[in-house]
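#onboarding

Welcome to the new folks! Below is a worked example of what a typical request in this channel looks like: someone posts a single protein sequence, and someone else replies with the predicted structure as tokens. Don't worry about understanding the tokens yet, we'll cover that in week two.

Example request:
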Amino acid sequence: MCFLCKGRIVPDTTTFMVDLGRCIIIVRNVPCDRCQQCGDTSYSNEVAKKLEQIVEKLKDSISEIAVTDYSSAA
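Example response:
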């Protein structure tokens, strides 16, 4: 059940983006839980940890924008 609107939560995928100021990292096909009513998304601890690893790996090696797929990164 969604904390925001009490809607139904279902497994889904999303695109995660982080703007680090000097570069932008986009990760596609990230597993998430999404509310069917309001669209709010949340990540499991495992997914959040992998996203942190992906960002750490890419942030020093790119100058502007990096787009990667969740399943093939880190």
